[in-house]
Amino acid sequence: MSRNYHETKRILVTGGAGFLGSHLCDRLLEQGHEVICLDNFFTGRRGNVAHLLQHPNFELMRHDVTFPLFIEVDEIYNLACPASPIHYQHDPVQTTKTSVHGAINMLGLAKRLGAKILQASTSEVYGDPDVHPQTEEYWGRVNPIGPRSCYDEGKRCAETLFFDYHRQHGLKIKVARIFNTYGPRMHPADGRVVSNFIVQALRGEPITLYGSGEQTRSFCYVDDLIDGLMRLMNSPDEVTGPVNIGNPGEFSMRQLAELVKEQTGSASELVFHPLPADDPKQRRPDIGKAQALLGWAPRVPLAEGLAPTIDYFRSAI
Ligand SMILES: NC(=O)c1ccc[n+]([C@@H]2O[C@H](COP(=O)([O-])OP(=O)(O)OC[C@H]3O[C@@H](n4cnc5c(N)ncnc54)[C@H](O)[C@@H]3O)[C@@H](O)[C@H]2O)c1
Q1: d(CA 267, ligand 1 centre) in Å
Q2: What is the helix (H) or strand (E) element at residue 113, kind and residue range?
Q3: Ligand 1 geometric centre to CA of 216 (Å)
Q4: Mean pLDDT along residues 32-47
């Protein structure tokens, strides 16, 4: 039985002071839950949750998920992990530890408590895919020894751990494979394409494209993504995932740059640099499973979601 007798739950959000985690904390509190936001502040910021610090149902905890944790909760959203290449390549050993030891520690906690646990996995488990769009059945094409491997393989191993805890210990697990997400509270210096382009456009600096700029990505607005994660957490126990959560709308980097220029009214020029190692050429989710199992599909088109994102960056930089 749940620790609470009512619908109100005590929910742990690891990485809760990060971009996605802070929006998730907002939404869980809005629904009346108690939220414990855990973060080591590697890429997360107190500012992302400053507006919640006085909330009676909110608790902020400094902790590193690579160390065990003993608290009492009903549900765990495991989001702790730097998500942008600049940040996760800064200390690659720590990145793998965060994914793998973090998963072991949070799964151990969930096992002790009989709590349900959701893993924020990633489209990077598909690597540089030779199947397009990617369905959950696709096993991926990941370089195990490259500069991105600390993240890609760390997340793949975390998925393995989730499914082994499920099979071996009967744990209630949910695995979401998150595709590129953008929105307010992204770190301005995280080097991700949406934040890069917006910051460069707002500063009137050249907008940097890699290769020919024809490689494509899909972009999901943060509100849609959080809705998908919460639907997955609240889905029936037999729905374990992995489930792709992302926006299938596909844009080339050049199209994105033009859109950002237009919406910021920037005169920045586009400049082209060589492609970084292992950069995927195409990435688009097949979201059939999320639609069928969760009744979920993104609602916010790119042009619409960019507006609040640009407003946020205007005040942040
Ligand atoms: N944003 C995306 O487009 C995207 C795409 C795929 C997957 N994801 C996954 O979603 C999760 C959240 O991503 P985000 O975009 O909010 O990134 P983020 O960097 O803003 O948030 C990650 C948070 O985890 C914290 N953290 C890192 N290592 C930690 C540790 N060892 N112990 C405790 N906290 C730690 C950071 O300080 C930060 O607050 C990550 O697991 C990421 O891999 C995000």
Answers
A1: 32
A2: helix 92-113
A3: 23
A4: 97
Angle, vertex CA 305, rays to CA 303 and CA 307, nearest 5: 80
DSSP-based three-state secondary structure for 3: coil
pTM score of the predicted model: 0.95
d(CA 295, CA 193): 29
| CA–CA separation, 228 and 282 (whole Å) | 22
The token duo for 113 is 């408590």
Q: DSSP secondary-structure letter at 285?
A: B
The stretch 127-143 carries a mean pLDDT of 92
Mean pLDDT, the chain, integer: 94
**Ligand 1 surroundings by CB, under 6 angstroms:** 14-15, 17-21, 39-44, 64-66, 79-83, 98, 102, 120, 122, 178, 180-181, 187
Per-residue pLDDT, 296: 98
| Continuous segment of H or E residues that includes residue 77 | strand 75-78
Identify whether the C-beta of residue 205 lies closer than 8 Å to the C-beta of residue 268.
yes
* pLDDT interval class at 278 (50, 70, 90): low
Task: Tell me what percent of the residues of the chain surpass a pLDDT of 70.
Answer: 97
| CA dist., res. 212 & res. 195, Å (int) | 19
**Cα 152 to ligand 1 centre (Å):** 13
Catalytic residues: 151
